[in-house]
């Protein structure tokens, strides 16, 4: 079992401990549970979807990286596939607070990067902040997304975000988690550049058309990619680097062990992720940061 779980394992009810053990005992537990695993855990533990997600929150929060606030937030996104995806907040010392990732953004982006097409529910251990409510309103599940919190009745995003402004108030655009492929190409065999290009091709930027992707190579030779997730209200947009760092963190990688990083974006886009990406990577100790354009 990963060291991060040992301190909070006793907070997990014993029936759930038994049901989870076959999956969580391994060091390479991917911070997600497949639909089949989830069904088995529900049967063995007697918990329903909502109760299971609430009970898993301490495990999700164990992925929190909060050197500034020391406030540990965990979230669980449930896909329509039935898969569960963990998420946790991430803070980065040495760069502006705008680079911070919230737990809901982490779980949602984790689901997106693992191929989930639509979310059914999000569960979080504190009430979602305004920023996250707006971020979630970009999803193709809309305001019908179920939102579960400890000791609260089940509600939907519509309850947490009345009089919502969102993508449907603007153009008829793809929504976050809709499958897209923008078709950009780069003439290179470099695996990391192609991984970042693939992420840019799947990125969500319907308002600026400034599609962007990031790929990170760590010291173990593993590659993690992240896609830009733009928001109708602009400020809650999630940069592609943060998306890649979410996947790295949830997959058990270390954000301070990045050997090489690549950003791919448009040469003539309205926006550029370059300055923020290179500054945050420098703060994380990565000195090899490259930019390629289509
Ligand atoms: Zn938030």
UniProtKB/TrEMBL annotation:
Source superkingdom:
Bacteria
Stretches of the chain forming a coiled coil according to its record: none
Required cofactor(s):
Zn(2+)
Enzyme Commission designation = 3.5.4.5
Family annotation (SUPFAM superfamilies): Cytidine deaminase-like
**GO process terms (BP):** pyrimidine nucleoside catabolic process
Q: How is this protein organized at the quaternary level?
A: Homodimer.
The name on file for this protein is: Cytidine deaminase
* Organism, scientific name: Xenorhabdus kozodoii
